[in-house]
Write a structure and sequence with these properties.
Chain lengths: 322, 322, 322, 322, 322, 322
């Protein structure tokens, strides 16, 4: 059981009545200033879906992940750790700015800088994929280092120059990121001819879902294409719709649970992960399994980050046995 | 049965096989150029919900209304007419522009001008309420006449100066309209203190739902506050959520079917209605009754418009007995 | 706009980035110790549904009310007040004890005593109706005064001696309460022959929904049957299922929004209300209107309590104009 | 509590373990041969929806009513009776015949004759409205008496000569019935011009919903148009969609719970009711209130039938004049 | 982006306002006479579900596929083609005839002949599986050639002699087809003992899902059992319910996306495909992934057909590089 | 087709009208005393979910399985048998006792003893997993034999000493069982550190899902860890959520259909299975595939039991060829 501080510590409550009552944070972990200071990972919920195309509602994604996270088992049986002990702090939802997608991206960037400046690892919960541009922009500003690669897990290339009258669309986010950092794309199974040409022209390391399906050995080559430092952006539609139907633009033929987590574990063991995001959850009312998968994916990332070999920011203490 | 022209007229089809097969237009009415020319009413579907706040998904409203309209009975028993005979033409969905809400408003204005210039009455299907500003702006540009009043049926005042960082929000649409035309608001039951003060300061004719509930006589005074020419904007949340749960921001204590249609009939009999909209339908999957109500409301408006006493554009022929 | 304190007050955040980001409390109001101290009303969420009979899931009621409350307009147009200014504090969800319903009732009683001892008015959010017994028991223990009546709004008499092998069932809650305080029951339209006999034998003031429907004058007599001090328990199935389908045991022929709120206003004006509860919300996935109605009902209660004539605890300052 | 016979009477079961376990019959009442013999009312579930037009799924109506009926309170507080004591027997679902709607109508007729020949009152649960023709046909064959009127509660006139290429459609059921018996139609708010003309030409007593809404006094005249013997057919879409959204073709502006039950009570007090049906329930997954309304309506009918003119069992045989 | 002709070509519209607004056709492709003439593939939507057994609602399948198809990427990354360029024309929904299933089959046959006579390849969207008999019958009449095999992908054998009182049921469709053409059945995992015996007696090439699961090599033998010319009928329940839950009779243990598309590609490369159908989609409200899978399957078929080696009707122009 | 006895055998019904009308039992099989006597398997539905944690509603599981079972094909193609011929009798739902979980466990134990004493194999349908303790307790009391192993298929270890204030929780069921019999756990992918330690300390044969995924050979070793006599408890969340989303606590990375059924077949061939249960189905409204999977799993168990090598109770007659 996770031990929680309560605001009632100094009040006289019979039997410590509310001590287990968990706040609406990731796993119900504490949300006070002390918790922020000692946290290693900071969750940034961004309930924005202004440019979503097909099924609306990814604004409800962050909340659904947080709600489902309250049912997570604190112990991760795979790594034999309790990742919450490293400190996972949940920020309040980032307020939406509707004036234009670009201004919302800027707001995410400011939030990202706030997290990075405090020496934390940001994990953003979306919300639509365009927001990734904001967090990647904050990395660009914060780190002088150039050797960062963005690992892009998605069913879609997201490499359009413009979509629905704007270059600031979730369908263009990888294109915008490409202007900042090198990209490695995994799981793609929907793209335009123009995107296809761009991939070839720019020689973007590109791993379509169908190829990974036919040649499992390809999985091993992905890590090799990454620089020492990595940002991971996960559009949840990279998963097969059978395990993740709760996305706005599902595409058949996607990846499985062990494939994605296996890849993430490899990357965290061999590279420095500076930040991540889990985007595009559009909860289906009455269907909780996909929300829980997303929450467990966040926690798996925490577990893998916890264990990783190197780090830009040193771990203060060994938490492995606490 | 509605008779339909088909594209197969000149092809040899056994038994006129597809003649009843209705296209996905309002009531399945024809969508060719001839139909456009003879139509008196033009339906403009605007599947945009970029600034929606609570429940997302009003982008699906126009489609749901059109689908439900296919089940409408062509005959209107109340007026003893068949309103479809006056010609109801459905435009394709207006493409969404995501760059900013303001640009989408401009696009709606262009579409409105297109309809008005061809001498048709526009009925917009939303989509979010902010779009009303586009259609009202097209009226402002098209008509030199100044004596137009906007009748605003809504649960919310929509009179905020700004919301979520923008003056172009559905929560501000009545405030923006007020900069163009006088306003009469009916059915309101949610507003801010600032909006409340504005209503008093500007002496906006204002009919809260609770007052209409207590003093039914108030209904009669609404028409008197309207100028000769009227634009009617209906935020579907003006209805009670019992009959219209499929909106993004439902408010208890709303109006009933006979109250709203009774009011609309009075207005159409006594004033010139230059355009209307039915906004904010957010379909609930698996629940068709509210979608059908919205479709029938559109058709009721057509029936009332059909019968109305005067008209800026004369009716060419008497359709009453056709 | 509600002004919120944030935990980031002492951190350097560009543009006060998160200041609007609302926590998952009623209306997103502050949840720190300062907020608790200055609050007049304390919300107690009890996500327990261990003895529910028909449709399971009232455990999700408190969360759904809190989520919907975030969309409430801070200003109440009926009373022309902003009730949140009196201070509304949301406790964390009361942890569930599954060993037996009776032990859970005891836990609610302890929570109620905690609230009462700090001089606050409790408003419980359910969760199943049996929990009311816990809160009423805390009143019994806290107040020496005997002249308290429990006003019971419900579709069901809840007067069974035992149900499904236990006297601690939601179907027995009014019977258990009757052992503590006099009862006035309003809106009932389902009861057993035995309950019917008990009502007559004990001369319980009893207002079936059908009678209120036929003789509206009866509404006025309800208040007269109440003592000076009142506890109000609202089983949401007292409403008609058209406005409140999201209950475990819906019954046709129930009360309307203005009927229930009109009664509550009268009571708050003429009696001292020591506590209330809103029970038995079982959210229907994808249908937000009933959740919002429940949230608005809570806020209406706050508005009425705010304005009431007398009070066991005097109001420190006049908040009417703030 | 309803006492039930069990098949385990002669087996040695500790503590009469299963005695409360209710079978899947109306209210979980016994389904053995003894129960059939002593029953006065026989429920006939007909899960057929072969000619349904808009929303499919009325085949699931009978099952949903039976499931919901298990939550009914045995005691009817309005009549102060326990209607189940007169004996309510539930037949197994009538097997569907898909070859043609006409053959399914014939099958219903045979089932109706089976019930009538055993001296029972049939209450059919639908399933689509066309099936009513089968049960009315069985009355025509069974009773020599000619003075039977069919009371038709519906949102639609159902008076088309033919629909979708067949005279055997739910849209034509009243027209087919009219060939057998006089008709009185109540609650109609959707019809074709041809149906409208037919009503006038044949002088069918016709009570549109809008007229009942404006002139409540009309309700009293309905009974006067009925002959001594009556068959009641209820298309559930006669109700307003706010209380009954679970139909295939909802129409706004319908009747309320107390209006319909008030009318049914008057008829049962003043006329002989020879049979009834409750048709067109199309359950909405996850929404139980409308199913329960339909079940309670069936039970209300039993209560009214129970109380008519004189009773308290045993009714010997001739039910025609009771 | 797909270029679309609009009816407004000759009207003066500012900025070509509606040019992107897509009609409700497959992928929003043009639906005028010119489009019909140049199309190679013709989509025939058949919204009929008169004989469906378990879950009703396959009538909504065609519409759901068409709606989802609007989100398809025009470019097919696997074949590196843009299949829409070969011309895909969507007919209006075939009007339903309810008089009997047999008459509806006849209507489909007439529609099939209409398509075949114009030299197009029909792709039918269902709707229930029985309708396949209509399209296969049109092939039988149109082609003198005898060497056609029907490839049947399904979870069920559909080989019953009769079901629910009729030989014209979706449960009998393969039996009826067998009277016209040889059959190859793939993916079966539910059949009766009688069907099992028939398969052996008639030596029907039969590939149960479990065998394909255990011996992947079997996949290669399927094509060998097909004659030069092939009709492909796909009952969507052939897929595993994890990827395709939206069918009326789901069966666990079905096929995957790459298995089915891999097989279809092989067939299109090595055989002449004269027509296809995608049947039995019963959309689940609020769950769009299965509808999209069905739409993408249709488009995959178009891509494979586009590329195929031989053809009864020569391709006029090489579209491969356009 | 399954032949059914009807209660109408001695009544004069035209054309044996209701003979196919199936009762609401597993597969609609007879529910009379004769059927009980000749049955080999007895289905025990236990609609209890008092201690469920995450998503409520497993009380609806038994009913959903029974409803779905009516669509099962009587013939099992894998074993080439018709398992229903061995006799499958469905008891009425076990009435719920809400006083405490422990008392409900006791009630299940009594029901289990009733079944065992009549020489039948019990298959329990849940309802929550804690109920397994009741049925296992009945085995403990009934069989003197000590060599029984409980095979536990689950995503969760369920080995907590206590949960939510009680040792009688579904989260503790395996721990309670361990006090009675040895345990073999398969498919686990969520457990606490304490549970993990207990597994090691007690050397419980433990097969996490991830290991089975990586080393398929492990499957073979499971049977070797079982004693001659086996009780099988299946928490449906052992399946991957893609095929079984309808559970209260879904966990990604679970087992597939052929994996689970393959294991069950092996066990039934090599061990004596004395009883089983299928627990934790929480139906998702409108989604029938998971309910059907659970029903087919029950029937698969019957098929495997039917065929098994040895038996504590000899099979009276060879049913293999009937
Ligand atoms: Mn994507
Ligand atoms: Mn993306
Ligand atoms: Mn509004
Ligand atoms: Mn509005
Ligand atoms: Mn109640
Ligand atoms: Mn209650
Ligand atoms: Mn009707
Ligand atoms: Mn009808
Ligand atoms: Mn099939
Ligand atoms: Mn089939
Ligand atoms: Mn489990
Ligand atoms: Mn378990």
């Amino acid at each position: 059981m996770i031990h929680r501080r309560t605001m009632f510590a100094d009040l006289e409550i019979p039997g410590n009545l509310f001590s287990e009552g968990s706040p609406y944070t990731f796993m119900g972990l504490p949300s006070d200033a002390e918790a922020f200071k000692s946290a290693r990972v900071v969750i940034l919920p961004v309930p924005y879906d202004g440019t979503t195309t097909f099924v609306p509602g990814t604004r409800e994604g962050p909340r659904a992940i947080i709600m489902a996270s309250r049912e997570l088992e604190p112990y991760d049986e795979e790594t034999e750790t309790e990742p919450w002990r490293q400190g996972i702090f949940t920020l309040p939802e980032l307020p939406v700015k509707i004036s234009s997608p670009r201004e919302m991206v800027e707001r995410v960037k400011q939030a990202g800088l706030f997290i990075l400046k405090h020496g934390k690892i940001p994990i953003m919960l979306g919300g639509e994929h365009l927001m990734t541009l904001g967090l990647v922009s904050s990395l660009k500003e914060f780190y002088s280092s150039e050797n960062i690669t963005v690992l892009h897990l998605d069913a879609h290339a997201d490499l359009r120059e413009e979509y629905q009258g704007s270059p600031w669309s979730n369908a263009c986010v990888a294109r915008r990121i490409l202007e900042l950092y090198p990209l490695v794309s995994v799981g793609i199974r929907s793209l335009t001819r123009e995107e296809h040409d761009l991939v070839r022209r720019k020689a973007i390391p590109f791993y379509p879902a169908a190829q990974l399906h036919e040649k499992p050995a390809l999985w091993n080559s992905i890590v090799e294409n990454l620089s020492d430092n990595v940002y991971i952006t996960i559009d949840l539609d990279v998963f097969d719709p059978s395990v993740m139907p709760s996305v706005g633009t599902p595409e058949p033929g996607g990846l499985g649970w062990y494939e994605v987590t296996g890849l993430l574990k490899q990357i965290c063991l061999k590279r420095n992960v500076l930040g991540c995001d889990i985007m595009e959850l559009k909860p289906i009312p009455g269907m909780v399994a996909p929300d829980f998968l997303a929450a467990k994916l966040v926690y798996k990332l925490c577990a893998y980050l916890y264990r990783r070999k190197g780090d830009l920011r040193p771990l203060d203490k060994d938490l492995t046995n606490c």
